[in-house]
Amino acid sequence: MPATDSSSAAAPLTSFGRSFLSHRRDQIPPPPPDHHSHSHTQHPSSSDLEIDAFHRHAADLLHDLLSDSNSDPSAPDLLSLAWTRRLLDSFLICLEEFRAILFALADSQPLSRPPLDRLLLDFLDRAVKALDLCNALRDGLDLIRQWRKHLAIAAAALAPAPAAQRGEAQIRRARKALTDLTILMLDDKDAGGVVGQRNRSFGRAGTTRDSLPHGHGHHRRSSSGGSSGSGSGSHLRSLSWSVSRTWSAARQLQAIGGGLTVPRANDIAATGGLASAVYAMGAVLFVVTWALVAAIPCQDRGLQAHLTAVPRTFPWAGPLITLFDRILDESKKKDRKHSCGLLKEIHQIERCSRQLMEVTDAAEFPLADDKDSEVQEATQELVQVCGSLKDGLDPLERQVREMFHRVVRTRTEILDYLSRPHNAG
Predict the structure, then answer these.
(1) 164-174, pLDDT tens digit by residue?
(2) What's the pTM?
(3) Where in the sequence is the domain holding 391, given as residue range(s)?
(4) Exposed e or buried b for every residue in 397-424, given b needs 16+ CB within 10 A?
(5) Mean predicted confidence (pLDDT) in 398-420
(6) Percent of the chain's residues with pLDDT above 90
(7) Is residue 415 situated within a structural domain?
(8) What is the number of alpha carbons within 13 Å of residue 422 lying toward its C-beta?
(9) Domain presence at residue 71
(10) In the chain, how many domains are there?
(11) Cα dihedral sign for 355, 358, 363, 369?
């Protein structure tokens, strides 16, 4: 997946990150005068205040993600399309503020000095692994679009018709669409999320994997560039994938989260606190990518990766752990264990499809009043989820694309800084 120039698109969030840091410096009161000592070491430096502001704002963003509709009517449901978009917004803001801090403090804390150089390269290695996840998530969203087409056929067959016209032909057409949908979703589970994946990339057309710095990204093309197969579901199979056939979202998550260790006190002191910001960004990156894989169909998706112990002394630690635990609890619910994804809308697809198939099974026509009432209720939910998918999938995909570009841009900027001759050593 080739890198692209996303500087213009990144400008609004970059400005937000920098203006936020300036705003927080203005809001944090200066330390009281020390009448017993003139030493500046007794008071936090400006870099300490900026890094503390970063930690606290990350905590605020994570707290917002934990809000529910009971306490905040405007809060979207956990793992819904709207919530997932908010999750990505929070990540993008954290990443931009992280970049702003790094380069704002680079003069006083050169990024190329140990141990900061080692910590940054470790973070960038984890960040690169998130790029393949972005590709796989793009494929998963494309798959949900295919599901929505079948939902729309069923909704069109049932929703517009008055009860008197909701006859055998309409029921049969809806059942056929829902049967095809069920087959596609079952194929996806059996194939580990491979069905429906496309040779699509967030980069420019005609570029290859080699155009990425250091060869990162899995952009594969087949010689024919077409699709193969016929019959139910096979028209979705492609000869090329955004990730290889053996690629695993579960293993990728384990690689992102594995070895994420708390920086030593000496490292934090030696880097003017930047080591703690690098660690915070790494932990946020892991939980965000883990939550996205939990929500959206991915190739060989799995939630086996664990969040290593995070010290509660960090302001963001509590909400990050709570968020991880809540999503894990959702994955263990009986009706969610074998789902293609924990996205609320996927659960609605499965539930209303199953309900419609059960209600219309061996139905006699014309439908009895009670049966027609059940069909109408299930159809209304079907129409609602169709609308949610129509409105939410494209914006979410744009945010996943933006996440990809921001990660690439951050990595490129940091590597460029580290490679400058005057920063060597």
Answers:
(1) 667 888 899 99
(2) 0.80
(3) 79-423
(4) bebbbbbbbbbbbbbeebeebbeeeeee
(5) 96
(6) 58
(7) yes
(8) 2
(9) no
(10) 1
(11) negative
